[in-house]
Amino acid sequence: MPDPILSLRGISKSYGSVEVLRKMDLDIHAGEVVALLGENGAGKSTLSGIIAGSRMPSEGSMNWQGEPYAPGSPREAIDKGIVLIHQELQLLPELSIAENVFIGRWPMKNGVVNRAEMVARAQEQLARLNLHIPATRKVAGLSTANQQLIEIAKALALKAKLLILDEPTAALGGAETEALFAQVRKLRAEGVGIIYISHRMEEIRQITDRIVVLRDGERVNEFADSATPVRTIVESMVGRSLERMFPALPSPGTRKVLEVQAVSGANGAFKNVSFDVHEGEILGIAGLIGAGRTELVRSICGADPLASGAVRLDGQELVLRSPADAIAKGIVMVPEDRKSQGLVVAHEIGENIAYANLDRFKGGWVTRKLKSALAKKAIASFGVKGRDEQPASDLSGGNQQKVVIAKWLIRNPRVVVLDEPTRGIDVGARAGIYGIIADLARQGVAVIVVSSDLEEVLGVSNRILVLAQGKQAGILDHEAANDVSVMELATL
Which residues contact 75 (CB under 8 A, 6 or more apart)? Predict the structure, then answer.
């Protein structure tokens, strides 16, 4: 085998007395896709940041294309041909797509930015990903999935020699994921080395050549064959035997809690959708990106206006002008992007929980004692690994998601809507989220789960509503639902 393009030897990283990486060795060869797997907190992001120049190792050395490599900034790494696509979006919303793709690297002509060339080249990269949006359009207002594809287009435009993809499909549906995979295979054939970080096991099996597993900051295993059984890989990640991922589904009651009748969105994203959710039922909502899933549940929760139709809770028709109206009636939502929509990540866990429950504080005064008591109850009830005075930014993705869920559930809602509840969450933490969802149903709560992960929506749902291009394609019972039946409806 030829020499690796990137070699890491003895890489360690500490923050004070906390060691997050220990003696890490890793080789990446040209033209191979290496999966980097591990639970949240295993060290994947820290290692990626060191390679990409955003973090400095405490000890160890790196070689890039046979030469010592120690980037002092992401710019130095990019100049060497090493590009990291972050899981968290890094786009500037008020700039155009083309400006975001070429920011800091403007094509110039006679001392000024050559906008025609910039737009044309950006449009070419979007087309490679089957994203048919004008490159002159502002990023503001685009869906999370489309913004993720624009981040990938930025990296393609850089002509990287080593590409690090951190959860690149977390917000993508099946068609968008296949377009991305086609580009990954093309780049691999062109000799680009790729580090692929994902929690989606089926993706790993499809796209990677080799699997490296991290646990608690150490490299614990390597699998030379991506066809290694998923259970074997996951047990290596979590360091224990993995029991059934999805809990047994409780049987729903006969009483209708939520009734949605012939609703259409004011923005045109969905039309004439009808369904109901019974007491103790988990209704999944599936569909491709752009099918109107998120827009539908946002309208039910008062975040977006309805053009027509009715929403009833326990038989009473609701007038929802804002999320506050829905919350007051007992309908709460865990949004798809927890960091920008679900949490104030720089603030304490206790403060985040208090923000959703200000009506529980007498006279409107939020005392530290009462805030702490409320937070500790939520932390204990939902198994959050953190203290109430810790900033939410200190938590892993799974624990952040538990905080978002906990702040609403202590209100004892009638309806809980979860949009992409395990996005960016490792396999071990997912089981905990699924357990919370099942427990809610057992308590008689009506639960709606929106997910682009087909295995997930099949595993947690009593019934599945399938949307296709903003229209209701059908509703499947758990027994009749499988990946084929759902996708047949989703592609109508």
Answer: 53
Q: What is the pLDDT of residues 75-123, one digit of tens each?
A: 899 889 998 987 667 788 899 999 998 887 888 888 898 999 999 999 9
The alpha helices in 386-468, defined as continuous H runs, are 397-409, 427-442, 454-460
Q: Residue 1 domain-assigned?
A: no
Model pLDDT for residues 458-482, shown as the tens digit of each residue = 999 999 999 998 999 999 999 999 8
Question: How crowded is residue 54: how many other Cβ atoms within 10 Å of its Cβ?
Answer: 16
Shared domain check, 194 and 147:
yes
Backbone angles phi, psi at 108, to 5 degrees: -110, 150
- Check the CA dihedral 207-213-219-221 and report its sign: negative
**Quick one: 358 and 460 in the same domain?**
yes
Place of tokens 């109901």: 276
Q: Is residue 61 domain-resident? A: yes
Dihedral Cα 265, 268, 272, 274, nearest 10 deg: -50
Question: What residues in the chain have per-residue pLDDT under 50?
Answer: 242
Beta bridge partners of 221: 213
Q: What CATH number is attached to the domain comprising 309? A: 3.40.50.300
Secondary structure (DSSP) of 138-174: BSTT--HHHHHHHHHHHHHHTT-SEEEEESTTTT--H
Q: Extract long-range pairs of 353-359: CB within 8 Å, 24+ residues apart.
A: 353/378, 353/388, 353/403, 353/406, 353/407, 353/410, 355/407, 356/327, 356/407, 356/408, 356/411, 357/407, 357/410, 357/411
Model pLDDT for residues 119-141, shown as the tens digit of each residue: 999 999 888 877 889 999 999 88
What contacts 24+ positions apart, CB below 8 Å, involve 26-30? 26/212, 26/219, 28/4, 28/162, 28/193, 28/195, 29/1, 29/2, 29/4, 29/5, 29/193, 30/2, 30/5, 30/161, 30/191, 30/192, 30/193
Residues 231 and 264 in one domain: no
Structural domain of residue 413, as residue ranges? Answer: 256-490
- Same domain as 225, residue 177: yes
Number of folded domains that form the chain = 2
Structure tokens at 299: 């309208």
The verdict on residue 248 lying in a domain is no
Which pLDDT does position 240 carry in this prediction?
A: 57
Same domain, residue pair 126 and 219: yes
Residues 201 and 303 occupy one common structural domain: no
- The pair of structure tokens assigned to 438 is 């099942």
Same domain, 92 and 212: yes
335 domain-assigned: yes
